[in-house]
Amino acid sequence: MPESVLIVEDEKKIADLLADYFVSSGYEAHCILDGTLVVEAVKSLQPSAILLDVMLPGKDGMTLCKEIRAFSQVPILMVTARVDEIDRLLGLELGADDYICKPFSPREVVARVKAILRRLQKTQQTEKSKLTLDEKKYVAIYKNTELNLTAVEFQLLKQLASEPGRIFSRDQLMNHMYNDQRIVSDRTIDSHIKKLRKKFAELFPNTDFIFSLYGVGYKYDICEKE
């Protein structure tokens, strides 16, 4: 399903022109000319981004931006024809993501929206990949699901997750987990890794978290299977 853009602009020719450019770039485009219709449209359409003109009939863009932010974090780009409004747009805590000055190039507007959506997608992917470790409870939390671990399993996961993608040798993992210099075999590390993998697999069967490189060691990374 294509991403959609809600264009809130009282000049119909400008709104239609922007809509054509967004459609040509693979987006769905919806146009609204009256400020009083915007909030309900945002709730029903749930657009990927909003182009919001400051000067609108019925209700101005700044008021609308505040109202939208009360229930949605959708990216909002404020559009203004008055240079003196820019300081107000930047100074007020409206929650807008960017601003565009008229006259503008429709291509530039599309490019600005694309850039914001790319940043948002990257941020969402980063948040999605986060693993939280609760050291007091020896619990790992992923996607709001708790994974109860033994003290040793927790320390092992903590070390691996401290540098995602880095391969730790068995010796490095043993030195971190057992600082009392006790003698531990490679098989002990392998056994704990096996148990960790099993616990992850029970809760997240479509995601791999720990990978092994034969003869070298282990690394932590999140790979969701299709």
Describe this structure in words.
The mean pLDDT is 86. The protein folds into two domains: 4-127, Rossmann fold, CATH 3.40.50; 132-224, Arc Repressor Mutant, subunit A. Strands 2-1-3-4-5 form a five-stranded parallel beta sheet, sandwiched between helices. It has a three-stranded antiparallel beta sheet with strand order 6-7-8, covered by helices on one side. Strands 9-11-10 form a three-stranded antiparallel beta sheet. The chain has helices at residues 12-24, 38-45, 61-69, 86-91, 106-128, 151-161, 170-177, 186-203; strands at residues 4-8, 28-32, 49-53, 76-80, 98-101, 132-134, 139-142, 145-148, 167-169, 207-213, 217-224. It starts with a strand and ends with a strand. It has eight helices and eleven strands. Helix 1 (12-24) packs across helix 5 (106-128) and helix 6 packs across helix 8. A hairpin with a 3-residue loop joins strand 10 and strand 11 (217-224). The chain is an alpha/beta fold and 226 residues long.
Helix share, percent? 40-55%
Radius of gyration: 25 Å
What would you call the quaternary organization?
A: single chain
What's the CATH first level of the largest domain?
Alpha Beta
The side-by-side strand order for the widest beta sheet comes to 2-1-3-4-5
Could you list the spans in which at least 5 consecutive residues all have pLDDT below 50? none
Shape by Cα distribution: elongated
Distance between the termini: 18 Å
N-to-C SSE series? EHEHEHEHEHEEEHEHHEE
Largest sheet: 5 strands, parallel
The structural domain count equals 2
Q: Indicate the structural class.
A: alpha/beta
- CATH topology heading of the largest domain: Rossmann fold
CATH architecture of the largest domain: 3-Layer(aba) Sandwich
Individual helix count: 8
Into which percentage range does the β-strand content fall? 15-25%
How many E strands? 11
Mean pLDDT: 86
Please, what is the CATH homologous superfamily of the largest domain? Response regulator
